[in-house]
Amino acid sequence: MKRKRCEMEEAAKEKKITEIGSAIEELSVLSIAKTTIVTTETETTSNIINLPLKPLLSFCKLIIQVLDKIGPTMAVLRQDINQNIQRLEEMWESDPIMYSNLVEIMRKEANEGSSKKPKSCSRATLWLTRAMDFTLALLQRLVKDMSQNMEQAVEESYNLTIKPWHGWISCAAFKVALKLVPNNNTFINVLAGKGESHQMVQDDIRSLISLLIPLELYEVHKLKST
C-alpha cells in the first residue's frame, strides 16, 4: 500500500511539470484571485474587478510553451506574446503594489487617454487576450476530436481569432509556416507527461478549458470593438 501511494505521488509530481498541468495550476490560482468587489457610496454601486497581473502573466508564459510544441508556425505569435508580457512586467516592476490589478491599469490608461497607443499596457493585454482566444479555440477543437488533422485545427483557430487582426505579411508568413505543423499524434505526445496516455492528456485539456472559459476578460474584449 505504501509503495503504491509513493508511486501515485511520484506520478502526480511528473504530471505537474507538463505545460498543460502547469497551466491548470496557474489558472486555478488566477480563478481564485479573480474576484468582484462591490462598493456602495450613498446610492451609487460600482464593481471593482480584481484581476491579478502576475498570475495572468505566468499563465501567458505557459501559453508560449504550449505554442512551442506546434513548432515554427507559431513563431510570430510567440514573439508578440513575449513582447507584450515584457511590457506588462515592466509596468508591474515599476510599482508592484500600484500595478497589481490589470483592470485598474487599463482603467488608468483609459482615463489618461493612452489606452489606444501602440505601446500601452492596454494594447499589450489586448493581444495577450487574442492569444488566449486562439489557445482556447485550438484546445476545444482538439478535445472534441483528438484524431482530427492538426494543420486544419491550427488554421481554423488562427482564422477565427488572430487572422482578422494580422496584416497581410503576417498572414502570408503564417500560411507558409502552417506546413510545418506536426501531426496530431506527435503534438499530443509532446504535451503528455511521462506515462500519460492520450486519454489522460485529453482529460487535462478539458480541465484547462473549464478554467479558461470563465476567464472572460470583459474589460479587454471591449477594446476589440474600438
From TrEMBL:
Segments forming domain Glycolipid transfer protein: 52-192
Species: Brassica rapa subsp. trilocularis
Superkingdom of the organism of origin: Eukaryota
Listed PANTHER family: GLYCOLIPID TRANSFER PROTEIN 3 (PTHR10219:SF34), GLYCOLIPID TRANSFER PROTEIN-RELATED (PTHR10219)
TM regions (residue ranges): none
Name of the molecule in the record: Glycolipid transfer protein domain-containing protein
Xref: SUPFAM superfamilies: Glycolipid transfer protein, GLTP
